[in-house]
Write a structure and sequence with these properties.
This protein is 50% helix and 19% strand. The chain is α+β, with helices and mostly antiparallel strands and 256 residues long. The protein has two domains: 136 residues, PAS domain (Beta-Lactamase, 2-Layer Sandwich), CATH 3.30.450.20; 97 residues, Arc Repressor Mutant, subunit A, CATH 1.10.10.
């Protein structure tokens, strides 16, 4: 049994493990003394492009620096370690916001990080961490602008963002930034006139971009690709709604 002081309740370790593994956002548990990972869910593994739980067990945040340093910068692992130590010493839940880094798959993550001490006989033995991916709450057009600021090589931002949207498999070649911007803008428009007004371009320019996109789409057409983006956006909302609905009772002790 693992005691959580913040709710003055006792939580069964197997229930905690089930909760971590079922969370739709990255989550893990570390040993408070060694800093080594003792549990991680799939979402957390994906950030580091690890395939199996065994790939992260026994490692520390500094061990992950070897593969993540080019993506999250020199200060990130030290900052995480410092927060872990503070949680351990103060035996207090801590929240740290607005972290931005690039995962090994090239995707940009902007997240809040919450760390909760797990105690046994009033001693912190482990630290439970979950991150709320604020990336999911950012409009796709705004997020694409962030990608363009990070990736300076021509076409690189568009290529990686198409992969993020899971539409790259529909294309014979990557979309240009202008084409992808038009496609992202079109998801909330009802007509070509609406789209032209939204992006402040002529109808002819809109039609030219749509033709270019259609020439690159090998599965379906422009509208099928547009539907894929809408489904992608909707799936993120549904996943979070289902999680908080089904897990509300179990999750209250974290959010409380």
């Amino acid at each position: 049994m693992v005691q959580n002081r913040f709710e003055n309740s006792v939580i069964n370790s197997s229930s905690l493990e089930d909760l971590v593994l079922s969370m739709p956002m990255p989550a893990h548990i570390k040993d408070a003394v060694t800093g080594k990972y003792i549990l991680s869910n799939k979402k957390n593994l994906e950030i580091f492009r690890l395939k199996k739980l065994e790939d992260i067990l026994g490692k520390t945040i500094h061990d992950l620096d070897k593969c993540m340093l080019p993506h999250w910068g020199h200060a990130f692992s030290k900052k995480v370690s410092d927060i872990d130590q503070c949680v351990k010493q103060k035996n207090k839940k801590m929240h740290s916001g607005d972290h931005l880094f690039v995962a090994r798959n090239g995707f940009v993550y902007i997240h809040d990080m919450t760390k909760i001490p797990i105690t046994n006989n009033n001693k912190v033995t482990a630290i439970f961490t979950y991150t709320c991916n604020k990336t999911d709450n950012i409009d796709l057009l705004t997020l694409f602008k962030i990608y363009k600021n990070i990736y300076s090589k021509p076409g690189e931002a568009s290529k990686i963002f198409c992969h993020y949207l899971n539409i790259d498999k529909l294309l014979s070649s990557p979309l240009s930034c202008a084409e992808l911007t038009l496609l992202l803008s079109a998801k909330d428009c009802n007509s070509r006139n609406d789209l032209a007004n939204k992006i402040c371009r002529s109808i002819k320019t809109v039609e030219t971009h749509i033709t270019h996109i259609n020439n690159k789409v090998v599965v379906g057409d422009f509208f099928d690709t547009l539907d894929m983006i809408r489904c992608f956006e909707k799936s993120k909302e549904i996943n979070m709604e289902n999680f908080y609905g089904n897990k509300k009772n179990n999750f209250n002790w974290i959010l409380g």
